[in-house]
Amino acid sequence: MTRRKVPFAIGEWYHCYNRSIEGRTSFENARDYHRFLELLYLANDGSPLRREDIGIRKFEEVLGMPRGKRLVAIGAFCLMPNHFHLVLKEVSEGGITAFMRKLGTAYTLYFNARHERVGNLFLKPFQSRHVSADRYLEHLINYVHCNPAVLYEPDWETSHVVDPQFLGGHIATYPYSSIGAHTGAHTPLRAILDAEVFSIVRTAPIQKMLQGARLYCADSDIP
């Protein structure tokens, strides 16, 4: 795995991530998380994104709306209070860059209007790392899904986990990641993901997930 130094290549997977400016909270409540999840689905379309044209719809209805040509394939995601992680594959020329720009702009406009603020919400540019092999993709997706562990065991990356079963339960039920879709749960969030990833990556027991996540951390310099 290498930090990106060249343009994204079609057919390759990348870990794309970003955090809010000054570490401020970028998701204040469930409504904010749900809007970002909606945008993960809606921004993945070559057509212009106009969220206001959708009107008032239920969350599940938004994730079932028809779209045009995809910009990226989404393999996994996790939203945390002040940052987010995405696993993306470039499927059209310039797709990842266009998708990340649409996603960030649309959410920032929403967030600023709702919370009465101005200016950028996320750092620019977003960070990315190329995933060069399927085994690293598996470690990466484990890492992304294990991110909520820090909310319950802040030192999980470097220390012994006191209660893996307790931690695993919280990771498995975290509502703002794609782990449910990967474990076969009936969730509308599956619509955000590309079906190909399920044939590449299998969800492992919590101990193996944590091990894979740590392997990814050891080979990266994610802040």
TrEMBL record:
Residues annotated as domain Transposase IS200-like: 9-147
Leader peptide range in chain numbering: none
GO molecular function list: DNA binding; transposase activity
Biological process according to GO: DNA transposition
InterPro entries, per the entry: Transposase_17 (IPR002686), Transposase_17_sf (IPR036515)
Database matches in PANTHER family: TRANSPOSASE IS200-LIKE DOMAIN-CONTAINING PROTEIN, TRANSPOSASE, Y1_TNP DOMAIN-CONTAINING
Protein name: Transposase IS200-like domain-containing protein
Native source organism of the sequence: Candidatus Kaiserbacteria bacterium RIFCSPHIGHO2_02_FULL_54_22
Lineage summary: Bacteria, Candidatus Kaiseribacteriota
